[in-house]
Amino acid sequence: MHLNTEETDIIVRGCGPTGAMLAGYLGTMNVRCIVLEREGEIVTDPRGIALDEDGIRLVQGLGFSLGDHHDLTKGAVMVMDYGTSEGGTGHVGFICHKQPGLEKYLRKKLAETKAVDFRPQSTIVGISEDDDHVYVEYKDKNGEIRGRRRW
């Protein structure tokens, strides 16, 4: 079978909080990337429930204001006191969040970035390499299998 091979710089597997944040930063640096996400919609089950001070800083670095209540929207969902008022960077030590809301804002950032190509309903079915490239084969929502290279 001959695969339609498209070229990109990076392939990100999964668009949960970590994959979406990585793709967001790659996009701001104009690094071409494709995000392959198995699900068609934002998952309502938490794949993450808290941000530590580094996570808070990373979210802010993508342009999201956490506001006076350290929230991703307007009001705090929950702030936990675990014996300290600040982490080492001046933020609270960590905050809890609602993952679907966080993913919504991160995916909005991806949609605004021309370097990021988000592909929901895509499943990786194979990875191979030669001397010059790495190839990723996946099935997208149309059932097609494509290869990507230069990972």
Summarize this structure as a short list of keywords or feature phrases.
single chain, 151 residues, alpha/beta, FAD/NAD(P)-binding domain, three-stranded parallel beta sheet, 3 helices, 23% helix, FAD/NAD-bd_sf, FAD, PheA/TfdB_FAD_monoxygenase, FAD-binding domain-containing protein
Question: Can you tell me about this structure?
Answer:
The protein is built from 3 helices and 10 strands; from the N terminus they run ββαββαββαββββ. With 151 residues, the protein is of the alpha/beta class. The protein folds into 2 domains: 1-45 and 100-151, 3-Layer(bba) Sandwich (FAD/NAD(P)-binding domain); 50-96, no CATH class. A hairpin with a 5-residue loop joins strand 9 (134-139) and strand 10 (145-149). Helix 1 (17-28) runs parallel beside helix 3 (99-111). The protein is elongated, with a radius of gyration of 18 Å. The model is unreliable at 73-77 (pLDDT under 50).
Question: How would you summarize what this structure contains?
Answer:
With 151 residues, the protein is an alpha/beta fold. The protein has three helices and ten strands.
Which of globular, elongated, flat, extended, rod-shaped describes the shape? elongated
Distance between the termini: 22 Å
- With strands numbered from the N-terminus, the spatial order across the biggest sheet is 1-10-9-8
Strand content: 25-35%
Which regions are unreliable across 5 or more consecutive residues at pLDDT < 50?
A: 73-77
Radius of gyration, Cα only, in angstroms? Answer: 18 Å
Known CATH architecture of the largest domain: 3-Layer(bba) Sandwich
Q: How many H/I helices?
A: 3
**CATH classification class of the largest domain:** Alpha Beta
Average per-residue pLDDT, rounded, comes to 79
Secondary structure category: alpha/beta
Residue share in helix: 10-25%
Order of helices and strands: EEHEEHEEHEEEE
What's the structural domain tally? Answer: 2
Q: Could you please say which CATH topology of the largest domain applies here? A: FAD/NAD(P)-binding domain
